[in-house]
Amino acid sequence: MKNRIVRGLLLPAFGLSLLVTLGCGKSEPTPAPSGGGGGYGGAPAPAAAPAAKKKWDPAAGTATVSGVVSFKGTPAARGKIDMSGNAECAECNKGAAVLDEDLIVTDGKIKNAFVWVKKGLEGWEFEAPATPVTVDQHNCMYTPHVIGIQVGQKLLAKNSDGFKHNVNLVSQKQGKPFNPMQDGGKTDEYVFDAPEFCTFKCNIHSWMTSRINVVEHPFFGVTGDDGKFTLPGLPPGKYTVEAWHEHFKAAKRMEIEIKDKETKGDVNFEFEEK
Ligand SMILES: [Cu+2]
């Protein structure tokens, strides 16, 4: 009996709160949508309004840009990383020589170049993908060595070694820098809140570094051994495409224009030692 009374009281209250919620929800679309952007035949935006960003619509991404990042000349031989001063790292690599990853060139093609759209996508607002990016500390090296990630996307920093590493983010712009010691077998999560090219360092093992390039959109790629990159799903437009590599002081840039449904396969970059 008591229960019934309580229920009788609760139900109307719940119904009321539902109505209120619906009322609030309905009123939300009334103010100008943040997407906007015009082009629908409506009234032009007031002149004083800041340039509104359009919510990214994957259907707009009909074009593809691709190319190769090459090295001109003969690259220096890769150096060997000396892990002999650290018993744990020497042991997990079983004495095998580990080569440094500063510059990896195979048949004239550069690995680990970060190619991205530096300019031209400012009018779009992108959501971070739900899929996280993983960096692993394994055998006292970072895998992968160069990582691209979107602002707001989750990074899983994994330590698959059986001992401690120090996950030191070297950054100027991130709101939540971090520098923890991480036990073996653990995975920590981080989110980056500003576009910036950052560095990961392990202060225990001085040779351990990786690059984390944080950008606002998904149009970036890291070259493999063949030096190739592909940026699919770009909206038609004019862009500055940049190839960045940690070994070279200056990045290479190219101005391009792509049309609807165009595939542009000759966005090639070449680096050389100065
Ligand atoms: Cu380490």
Explain what the structure shows:
- The chain is mainly β.
- Among the domains are: 53-73 and 108-126 and 220-274, Sandwich (Immunoglobulin-like); 127-216, Cupredoxins -  blue copper proteins (Immunoglobulin-like), CATH 2.60.40.
- The chain has helices at 2-27, 87-92; strands at 54-55, 63-71, 80-81, 98-99, 105-106, 109-110, 114-119, 124-125, 133-138, 141-143, 146-150, 154-159, 165-166, 168-170, 181-182, 187-191, 196-201, 209-215, 220-222, 228-234, 237-244, 252-258, 263-264, 269-271.
- The strands form eight sheets. Strands 2, 20, 23 and 24 form a four-stranded mixed beta sheet that branches.
- A hairpin with a 7-residue loop joins strand 17 (196-201) and strand 18.
- Residues 1-42 have low confidence and may be disordered.
- The protein binds copper (II) ion (CU).
- Copper (II) ion (CU) binds next to loops.
Summarize the structure.
With 274 residues, the protein is mainly beta.
CATH arch. level architecture of the domain at 53-73 and 108-126 and 220-274? Sandwich
Gross morphology: globular
What's the count of strands?
A: 24
CATH topology of the domain at 53-73 and 108-126 and 220-274: Immunoglobulin-like
Task: Quote the average pLDDT.
Answer: 85
Please give the CATH class of the domain at 53-73 and 108-126 and 220-274: Mainly Beta
Bound molecules: copper (II) ion
> CATH homologous superfamily name of the domain at 53-73 and 108-126 and 220-274?
Immunoglobulins
- Using the CA coordinates, give the radius of gyration: 25 Å
Structural class of the secondary elements? mainly beta
- End-to-end span in angstroms? 88 Å
Classify the helix fraction into a percent range: 10-25%
User: What is the helix tally?
Assistant: 2
Largest sheet: 4 strands, mixed
Catalogue the unreliable spans.
1-42
Order of helices and strands: HEEEHEEEEEEEEEEEEEEEEEEEEE
